[in-house]
Amino acid sequence: MKQKKDRHSPFPRRFDPAMMPPMQQGFVLRLIQRAAFVRPEEMGAVLWSFVYFFLLLSGYYLIRPLRDAMGIAGGEKALPWLFSATFVAMLCAVPLYGALVTRLSRRRLVPFVYRFFAANLLLFFALVMLGVPRPLIGRVFFVWTSVYNLFIVSVLWSFLVDVFTSEQGKRLFGVIAAGGSAGAIAGPLVTAAVSQRLGQTHLFWLLVLSALTLEACVFCARKAELHAGSRRESHARASSDKPVGGSLFAGVRLVASSPYLAGIALVMLLLTTMNTFLYLQKTDLVRRAAQGSAAQTALFAWNDTAVSVLSATLSFFLTGRLMTRLGLAAALAVLPVLSGLGFSALALYPSLAVVAVVEGLRRAAQYAIERPAREVLYTVLPREAKYKAKSFIDTVVFRGGDAASAWAHAGLIALGLSFSSISLVAAPLAGLWLGVALFLARREKVMAGEVTPEAAPASPEALPSAKAPPA
Asked: How far apart are CA 21 and CA 14, in angstroms?
């Protein structure tokens, strides 16, 4: 029987592997199933989620090098102020997002958020074309982009942990994350290719292209939701049409009252502290090595591309196998162990080459392994925690850690500490991070029903409905 097509799309409403030519069907199924153990009935949801993530990050990475080049234009001393302004902007944005989540259903939330940010991108483009002073636009754009990128990715992962179960997340989130890594390859390649050939004003046409990718993400999210709900139609439709409800500041309350969510917040804080330390060291070294905004933009873009190639490879071929065969704890342990080794290496050999290698390996591991594994932790939680507590951790805690660690780094520099000494300060934090990650992995197994509570470390959990079925 032929499947009914969406009148706005040439694709079938639901993907059916049997509709593919036999040779193509066998190759595609074997490739994806070897990478992530995808079942035939899950193929449509996985492929649309893959494309969704690809478009989302390709659109963001088109403009990320512009943000980085604008951020370092004022020198390294300006970055702590920009991080602090970003944190303040995030504090203002999170309650507004909480109000949206309270009132809008999942089906309406994703289009609203993405179209709002697309309109913002077009507004920045209009301001550039109207001749508004570039330094002013640059500072505002740096802060706005730092808010924007966290929200759009947080919304995507909230969507994914809401439509996939814990067991599915361990198998599928790696290959879906590979779509994001592939998009992070495509975006910088486009930016790097045009940055040396076009003037800085023409580069801002990338804002328009980025806005278009957000609209395409809305379509992909709708298709992914249709496929993910095909095996439990009535429950999925009811969940996607129903607002999450609750209070505006429920995310803060949930994190404060749950050891499990507080542990995730602490992991996020340690992650962003180490990220910021490396970022500040890299930007100072890049500013000295590359002269001119176009050269700096191209250098950031090629660096992003190299990281994304490694991340896509790890996501597609390793992450699913790691989580299903060795467990969630092994996946969560990778980045803290790598961070401890990396900062130890930087303490011994502080240079641009070592910083680039350490940051590249850490970012690849974060995007390919740590982020999908961390998102699995949310699959066992109620819907309000998936959207509100998760958003609070992904945005306020993340950017708060950015601001605090940026000022801490500036304070250590003011005290006369070298890059080597700062690396020695950061390295021991990896041990704390590892311990919290192992605790969270154990609690997730209990909440998912994989082990009995008696077998897990004693810890009162403030989310009694944590085993509520996912939408």
From this structure: 16
